[in-house]
Write a structure and sequence with these properties.
Helices cover 5% and strands 65% of the residues. It has 5 helices and 39 strands. The radius of gyration is 26 Å and the shape is globular.
Length: 701
């Protein structure tokens, strides 16, 4: 369950206002914010770009970074935060290969929301690498604190388009202000249409009697499509330091998301080669509504209530065909068609009380999912699933000199049921959390953090409807799965020097009952189901520096990581050791901006599979002219794109590599940012109930 809790801090003490004019200006700007986002009182020593606080790192955008940015994503990229990988063209924000929860003034947001931010209105960016109970199960949080300017309006537009390929992204955003009210209209469209791609695949099946069969797939071509669009209409009312109301209606449309692989299977038993066609995809619409109310009271007390709901109406399909060359009748013809009518709704309430050097936050939330899946390939058989999650927590923050302590506990109740089988599960789980921060000097900091969270089984993991994936492989969910627990202990050392800052992290993680796939033979069928395994444990070492080689001109940033992990489940014990990392070089001068990025994705062990994201390189050159930015670049100018997985199961050992045709893919980028009057910031949601209707996934290889 993803829980959205407020990110509140108290007003910075101004006893050292005479230290520098820049601190004075920043404090005056903070006092003009119309919504009270206060910081806990503490004395901080500001490095040129980053302030190390007890529970976060605070980055203040420089004038140069603002001038060369035309939207929030470009600004984030230009800050070059260590350990953070940002690409506004490809549209991702990750940290050490893991997802980053993005927020705007405390409310959870999306990458699209970040793209619609005006760089001039971003006051600071908070980077939280040890999120507390308020952030649910997030591993990293990025919070944009945005100013609340006066009346005015803005129009933003951005396009990225590949040359000679159907790949691109197009975005437009308009904001209009009237007194305390603001209207916003946003839309974007992402194009990836019939993109040439290939798949390298090799698998070995071992039967219960010990015999084996190896199948090697040689690519004969394929296509990748991922066309989707989003639209949002929002309204906000802000009465300074008193009331915030926010309402938004949005719709997300997956026009076509599909992959098709054509290949030739060579068999180790000497049988004739087999032609295969593996086609999978889905499309659907997700309309939703969000309502938010924040009320401030005397005595530095705040009450926040958030409600949201959305529907998902869509289809997913899988069509797998094996045939002999020259023959019209297939050897195998497996079709799966699923029609979803799913809905989700949630409500959340938080109470925040602040003192001079402490803070108490308590909250409760409820999220419900109702799923109805029709399997058209099974004579229209219908499966219903219900999932309810309730969460309660309390967390206390206290500063004592150079030491800061945070402690809290949460309790989560999960209940899910498959109606047709009348099988399900329910459980109570506790989430303890503790953080100790010690700052021996103004330029260094130690943080010891322990936190925990729970993960409920997903729709596909609990759905007992049998799905055939090829000639003899099947997938069947397990409705008796239990909610899994995860625990993490980390020790961070952060440092800030005149031209270099960074962090070193040692982190241990365990999930003793992780939900993972397991395989077994059922007569002549190889079935993939799911279990609460005997657990995953890993140990991670990570170093993330940022170096100003030439101040305000040349910056180098990156991450180097080593991970050792062990996974245990039914009939196996596996180990994985790997290096990963990413780095970026940015050179900016006289309106020009050059960027080069390299990434070697983290190799993750989960169950009996090692999988990895994108190994890629990226280069771009942009020029800023008045309200415009013009850029050119290339995806994969060097190396070989790779994304894939490796199965180590004793019954099915395989290795798969995806090879889309993006090597040396040039593109052009144009951004436009027009402002008039003085813009009014969108409402700052301190929490976000974030209900999300689930999707079915048709089985595939």
């Amino acid at each position: 369950m993803k829980l959205i809790i407020p990110n509140i801090m108290k007003q910075i003490l101004l006893s050292f206002i005479a230290l520098s004019m820049s601190l004075s200006v920043a404090a005056q700007s903070a006092a003009t914010d119309s919504v009270a986002v206060e910081e806990l009182g503490e004395v901080v020593v500001q490095a040129p770009k980053v302030v190390r606080k007890a529970d976060m790192d605070v980055y203040h955008p420089s004038r140069r970074a603002i001038e060369i940015s035309k939207n929030g994503m470009q600004l984030l990229r230009n800050l070059m935060i260590p350990s953070l990988s940002v690409n506004d063209v490809l549209g991702f924000v990750t940290a050490a290969g893991q997802a980053v929860q993005v927020r705007i003034n405390g409310r959870q947001a999306s990458i699209d929301d970040v793209k619609s931010l005006l760089p001039e209105t971003v006051k600071r960016i908070e980077w939280i690498d040890n999120p507390g109970l308020r952030y649910g199960d997030a591993t990293h949080v990025l919070n944009f604190i945005v100013r609340n300017p006066d009346m005015g309006g803005s129009l933003m537009a951005n396009t990225n388009q590949a040359l000679a390929k159907a790949w691109g992204e197009y975005m437009a955003d308009a904001k209009l202000n009237n007194g305390r009210s603001q209207w916003e209209l946003y839309g974007n469209f992402k194009l990836t249409d019939n993109f040439n791609t290939g798949r390298e695949y090799k698998e070995t099946f071992t039967y219960p009697d010990g015999s084996s069969l190896t199948r090697r797939e040689s690519s004969l071509g394929g296509t990748l499509s991922n066309n989707f669009g989003n639209a949002k209409l929002s309204y906000s009312y802000i009465k300074p330091d008193t009331t915030v109301f926010y309402a938004s209606f949005y719709t997300k449309r997956d026009f076509s998301e599909s992959t098709r692989f054509d290949g030739l299977l060579s068999l180790s038993n000497g049988a004739d080669d087999i032609l295969l066609n593996d086609h999978q995809g889905k499309h659907g619409t997700r309309p939703g509504l969000s309502l938010y109310l924040e009320q401030h009271f005397a005595g530095k007390q705040t009450l926040v209530v958030d409600m949201s709901g959305n529907f998902y109406m869509g289809r997913s399909f899988s069509h797998y065909i094996e045939s002999l060359p020259g023959q019209s009748d297939p050897l195998t013809d497996v079709v799966t068609n699923i029609r979803d009518r799913n809905k989700a709704f949630s409500v959340e309430a938080n109470y925040i009380k602040r003192w001079a050097s402490s803070r108490l936050t308590a909250g409760a939330s409820y999220t419900g999912n109702r799923n109805r899946s029709t399997y058209e390939n099974l004579d229209g058989r219908v499966y219903h699933q219900r999932q309810d999650r309730s969460y309660f927590f309390a967390e206390y923050f206290q500063r004592i000199g150079k030491v800061t302590l945070t402690g809290g506990i949460g309790a989560q109740y999960t209940d899910f049921l498959s109606r047709e089988s009348d099988r399900g599960n329910h459980s109570w789980n506790l989430r303890p959390r503790f953080t100790l921060s010690y700052r021996p000097t103004g330029s260094s900091q130690f943080k010891l953090n322990f936190n925990s969270w729970q993960t409920a089984p997903s729709l596909s993991e609990t759905n007992v409807a049998p799905q055939q994936t090829d000639g003899f492989q099947w997938r069947i969910g397990n409705s008796e799965l239990e909610t899994s627990n995860s625990y993490r202990l980390s020790l961070n050392y952060n440092f800030s020097l005149p031209r270099i800052n960074g962090s070193f992290i040692v982190m241990g993680f365990t999930s003793p009952n992780a939900i993972t796939p397991y395989l077994f033979w059922d007569e002549d069928r190889l079935v993939t189901s799911y279990e609460n395994s005997r657990g995953l444990q890993n140990l991670t070492f990570r170093f993330s520096p940022q170096i100003e080689v030439i101040p305000d001109w040349l910056v180098v940033s990156g991450t180097v990581q080593y991970r050792a992990e062990r996974m245990r489940g039914t009939g196996y014990k596996l180990y994985n050791h790997n290096w990963s990392g990413e780095g970026a070089i940015q050179l900016a001068h006289s309106g020009f901006e050059f960027m080069f990025m390299y990434r070697r994705a983290q190799r993750d062990l989960w169950g009996e599979k090692i999988s990895w994201g994108e190994d890629l390189t990226f280069v771009s050159l942009a020029y800023n002219w008045k309200k415009w930015q013009f850029g050119v670049g290339m995806v994969m100018p060097f190396g070989k794109y790779d994304q894939g997985s490796m199965s180590l199961n004793k019954y099915n050992t395989n290795e798969m590599h995806l090879r889309p045709d993006i090597k040396r893919m040039p593109f052009v980028a144009i951004s436009y940012n027009l402002q008039w009057g003085r813009q009014k910031r969108g409402a700052s949601k301190l929490i976000d109930s974030n209900a999300e209707a689930e999707k079915s996934t048709a089985g595939g290889r």
